[in-house]
Amino acid sequence: MAETKREIERKYDAGAGQGLPDLRGVAGVADVIDKGVADLDAVYYDTPDQRLAAAAITLRRRTGGSDAGWHLKLPVSLADGVRDEVQAPLSDDVPPALTGLVRARVRDTPLVPLMRLRSARAVRHLVDASGTLLAEVSVDDVRAQRLHDGSATAAWTELEVELAEGTAPTLLDKVEKRLNKAGVSRAKSTSKLARALAETADPTGSERPARPPAPGTDDSAGTHVLAYLHAQREALVAMDPAVRQDLPDSVHQMRVATRRLRSAFKTYRKILDRNVTDPLGEELKWLAGELGVDRDREVLTERLTAALADVPRTLRLGPVRARLRIWSIAGRTGSRRKTVAVLDSARYLALLDAVDALLADPPLREAAAAPAGNALPKAVLKDFDRLAARVDQALALAPGEERDLAMHEARKAAKRARYAGEAAKPALGKPAKRFAKRMKAVQSVLGEHQDSVVAREALRNLAIQAHAAGESAYTWGLLYGREEAAAADRERELPGVWARAAAPKVRGALGG
Fold this sequence. Notes:
The protein is α+β, with helices and mostly antiparallel strands. Helix content is 54%, strand content 18%. The protein has 15 helices and nine strands. The protein has helices spanning 51-54, 96-101, 103-106, 170-181, 192-199, 221-244, 250-267, 274-309, 320-343, 346-360, 372-395, 401-428, 430-468, 474-501, 504-509; strands at 3-14, 31-46, 58-63, 69-77, 82-88, 112-127, 133-146, 153-163, 185-186. The longest helix is centred in the C-terminal third of the chain and has 39 residues, at 430-468. The radius of gyration is 27 Å and the shape is globular.
């Protein structure tokens, strides 16, 4: 069974035999307790082309010390030294729970032993006046050996400061200040493995971690679009393990990355060849739809729970909380299993391969060579005109199902226009930023309207289930009426929000 913990630490370079300065008195540290020396032996696994290392991910099998077993470290914020460490019991092979968490990175490529690190770790605990652990400081004498390609070796001494759970991160700054005074400086490498790979690398540079090819550095439209696609590809792959771990908001963020990729393909059709991007866009649509089963149920449950809590107790007739809980769990259980199955599917891995192939050999059209300041505004304004047509159509309809559908289509157009503005922001600056902000305001109103439409359908089903079970359906009908009123409010709000978003100066700022 894998367990996850948040790790916040900093690493420092230390000279051989360099002692630890006295840290007593630093930010409430009352004492430094010597916990002895542990001999650690860790074998790090990766693909032969080091895909995990390229993403600052480490996977190791370690013996010795207090936490022997398998450790997978996923970066959260490398600049702040924050990583999530997923631990699994010691076994001969990589545990399936961990291989799943790196599948989006390695795909079908096998994981092999890459590096062996043996460390003599001298551990000390920093404690406060009550004896509560604040941080663990370790001085590691490290010996690294490659397990192939000549078995090159390296050795160094480093110091780590890892916060205990509940300790404020400011302690790290104050400890670092004391270390700096003693001549100890922050490590240049983010991990032991990164340093080992660098110091045992082939001097010809033939062995380097595999990375998707980076976009160019010129100011062409193609360069800017590819940079945006690279960022969304990385967001998509990075969120995969978070979704598998069921972390908060992970499904939503992964779904956003798929939609941004697909929207970019549509917005920039004059820059990227549709013959390549259209089929890939359909696969991204499939993935977003599959992820949506889980995300939509989560959002809807939160909305209905909040709405029910706002109903006076005297108007909650029957076991309404229990029925909502049963409805939520039933839907969540099925969709959760399906989401993980999708991420394990051959179709999903083929989609990731296709995205990487597109970035490796981008299908750029002739317009990609044009200056970004000329080509991108035209693409963004085309999406704006598309949104304008859909909003006008929705506002021209009478309230009812047909208008609901039209407003939903306008919502999707608003989201695409917003993403277009965000993608153009690095090239166009503040005008694109302001444009995206106004499109987001339109999207928010239309999104809240659509959420009400979906909520009403769920409330209708809950009322039917309650009635069939002999329960009162009154409370569900009350909430249905409130959702109808909320939708009507959004419909009245839309013309004003749209008028501000469609002001002539909005187009003018983008050159329209």
